[in-house]
Specification:
Layout lengths: L11 H37 L4 H13 L2 H26 L7 H18 L5 H30 L3 H21 L33 H18 L1 H11 L1 H6 L4 H28 L10 H11 L4 H25 L4 H15 L1 H19 L1
């Protein structure tokens, strides 16, 4: 019998949900603190240049969300960042370090452009899904190369994905300067895609396209699969403790390879969105580094798909607003790049802050004792 006044025991499921909720709140709080500290350090850098940090940040905010077009451009930039970032986050969750989202994006964009040019007579309802699916398959296979090398030869997926980035970029460069080059242009690009291969515009008068729907859907579905499916459970277990996963009978290599393949598929989908939604062709430099920034976005979002999407919008706002800040206040846009990577350093270094805090508390208790 339960003693009078004693609290009823929580069900195990409720206890687990409470722990997860607390953990998520702590993770997002640390991300918020890291971002806020990076802004403070950025303000100090701006002040050291002899500029007013408040005016600089006001111009930054105005450039990012000050009007309909700037808001549309922010979300447009967030599409590839969020798709690639969610992919990177899934790989990280499985303990697989996918640093190759950039190359997977290039391969996905190239594959989707090839399909669009090869089947110009198909209606949009068939052509666009075919292009997107091809981009995902191409990106997934490209990431799968690193996964296979990891599973069969225990080769570092980090090194292999980095190397595959260079191979992808040079392969695309060869194709757009060679067999797939637009014959009417000396530039490294394909011919323009047919109108049926254009992603529909979501906000008339702007460049914001339907890829935003794909990005939101990817965030929701990835969250659902990570926390509500057996596959997601395996990914989280393998990422937390490989030895425990092996002892329980899980195929660790298979789980890591599947996470890398899905990661590459989402990066390939980001490439499709750039080719079909922004450039309307494949160009040699289709990405200004989305795949690399996606790693930062995944870390800031604490490898939580919803958090990653929010972090992608935040980083996109910084990048879009940077040019306005530069023209209005005279602060170089490179300061924003510094702020972005300060966020990473602060997130990585948060363990040191916890260690210092623990030491201080231990000394305080010793003195009181």
């Amino acid at each position: 019998m339960r003693e009078a006044g004693a609290k009823p025991a929580r069900p195990l499921g409720a206890e687990r949900k409470l722990k997860i909720s607390k953990g998520l709140r702590a993770d997002f709080l640390s991300s918020f603190i890291a971002f806020a500290l990076a802004l403070v350090i950025g303000a100090a850098i701006i002040a050291a240049m002899g500029k007013d940090p408040l005016k600089a940040y006001a111009a930054l905010l105005d450039g990012a969300v000050g009007n309909r077009n700037s808001l549309a451009e922010t979300f447009l930039r967030a599409i590839p960042l969020s798709l690639a970032g969610i992919g990177v986050a899934i790989a990280f969750r499985a303990g697989a370090f996918n640093v190759g989202a950039e190359g997977q994006l290039f391969i996905g964009a190239m594959a989707s452009a090839w399909v669009g040019l090869s089947f110009p007579s198909l209606p949009p309802i068939l052509l666009l899904p075919l292009m997107g699916l091809t981009a995902m398959v191409a990106g997934g296979l490209w990431a799968g190369i690193a996964g296979a090398l990891k599973a069969w030869m225990n080769a570092s997926e980090m090194i292999n994905t980095i190397m595959l980035n260079y191979i992808a970029v040079f392969l695309v460069s060869f194709l757009v300067h060679g067999p797939l080059q637009d014959p009417s242009s000396p530039l490294g690009q394909t011919a323009r895609l047919p109108r049926a291969a254009y992603l529909p515009i979501m906000l008339p008068g702007t460049r914001l396209h339907g890829g935003l729907v794909l990005a939101v859907a990817a965030a929701l579905l990835a969250s659902l699969f990570l926390w509500r499916s057996a596959w997601g459970f395996r990914i989280r277990v393998v990422g937390k403790n490989t030895f425990a996963a092996q002892a329980s009978g899980m195929r660790v290599n298979g789980v890591m390879v599947s996470a890398l393949v899905v990661s590459g598929m989402l990066a390939g989908l980001a490439g499709f969105c750039e080719a079909a939604g922004v450039q309307h062709r494949m160009i040699e430099n289709i990405s200004p580094g989305y795949g690399y920034t996606a790693i930062v976005v995944a870390l800031l979002g604490q490898t939580n798909p919803i958090g990653v999407f929010a972090a992608a919008v935040l980083f996109a706002a910084l990048q879009i607003g940077a040019s306005t800040m530069e023209s209005a206040v005279g602060v170089p846009s490179s300061v924003i790049t510094v702020i972005q990577y300060l966020v990473v350093l602060l997130l990585i270094g948060r363990g040191a802050f916890d260690l210092i805090r623990g030491k201080v508390m231990a000394l305080s208790r010793r003195e009181k004792g």
